[in-house]
Amino acid sequence: MEEENLTTVTEFIILGFPEYPHLQIPLFLIFLLIYLLILIGNITIIALTCLDPRLHTPMYFFLCNLSFLDISYTSVTLPKLLDIFLRKRQIISLQGCLMQMYFFLCFSYVEFVIISVMAFDRYVAVCHPLHYGVIMNQRLCVLMASGSWVLGFLEPVTHTFLLSHLSYCGSNEINHFFCDLSALLKLSCTSTSSIDCATYIVGGFAALPCFITTLISYIYIISTILRIRSTEGRRKAFSTCSSHLTVVILFYGTMLSLYMRPTSMQSLDQNKLIAVLYNVLIPMFNPMIYSLKNREVKAAMRKVFKRK
């Protein structure tokens, strides 16, 4: 009888935010506005970098990658969420769910690498300014950027392969606004020890070097800035990395709050709220941070508007 009652799940229901049943339309409008701001802000950064020769530098080359990245991984999750809010189309196939999770993990890991690469770029700019043009040459920049994307697309392959071979039975409701890894694992009726192990191993080898690179880069940057005698010199040196440092604090702050809590203290509702921060709000704030804190971007904006 138990085997007869065991039904293999072939599609899932993404719940979204069912705790706010009377706010679905207002939430749709809020998330639509945020998504439009993400698209406009990041496309503006990319366009300005392409149009203004003064922004043809390694920092803005990596910033273009970051902007394209923010557009990509919000586009993996937000259109489906908007569809859920507006038309209640919550069903997604198993294959579609795995594909959404794969691309979300891809773009998330690329962001880890790109942020660490940008930290290294700021380290060279502050600590070795006379050799910046030699070290951060075009060939190295292209290699680091392309390597970030290649590593990002390879990193989730193990997770996706293992998830595709799990059995899902019983409840098919995903208590999240997209196909998140932790939410999918909770729906499996078979052992998830192999994917738990893979998550720690792959995550350690993938994310930890990025975190260490970023941390060491900023230790050297801060120590170099503190050794500068003049106040104006310290201010100028700090201004070259203040935007990126703000992004680093926001990104790693949300990631650490999500993954460094003990499993016993984690809940899907809390994970969902934290996911809104790094999947929705940070991509919206990134272009604002770089445009408000960078004189070059503001100058490029004024130049484009004067042309018009």
Task: Describe, in plain words, how this protein is organized in 3D.
The chain has 308 residues and is an all-alpha fold. The protein has one domain (9-307): Rhopdopsin 7-helix transmembrane proteins, CATH 1.20.1070. It is built from 13 helices and three strands; from the N terminus they run αβααβααααβαααααα. The chain has a three-stranded mixed sheet. The longest helix is centred in the C-terminal third of the chain and has 35 residues, at 193-227. The chain is globular, with a radius of gyration of 21 Å. It starts with a helix and ends with a helix.
The tally of strands reads 3
- Proportion of residues in extended strands: under 5%
Structural class: mainly alpha
CATH fold type? Rhopdopsin 7-helix transmembrane proteins
Strand order of the largest sheet: 2-1-3
Give the biggest beta sheet.
3 strands, mixed
CATH superfamily: Rhodopsin 7-helix transmembrane proteins
Number of H- or I-type helical stretches: 13
The averaged pLDDT comes out at: 84
Q: Report the end-to-end length measured between terminal Cα atoms.
A: 73 Å
- Please give the radius of gyration in angstroms: 21 Å
